[in-house]
Amino acid sequence: MADLESLNYPSISDMSTDEALEALRQIRLSRRVPMQQTKTTRKVVKKEVKVDPSTMTADQIAELLKTLGG
Length: 70
Fold this sequence. Notes:
Elements: H1 17-31, H2 58-68
């Protein structure tokens, strides 16, 4: 089983002040979680559709009325 001595990682207390600060800074930066950005939803653009009832068949009119709930 591995222990801290077998990792051969230098101790912070054995480093110079500048090296220790840089090592701690790198550890902190590697553990930071990026901030979540809020997702924006796109607005649905409704297009106006013009239908000429005189060109529709009876089946199409019945289906349209059924779709509209009337």
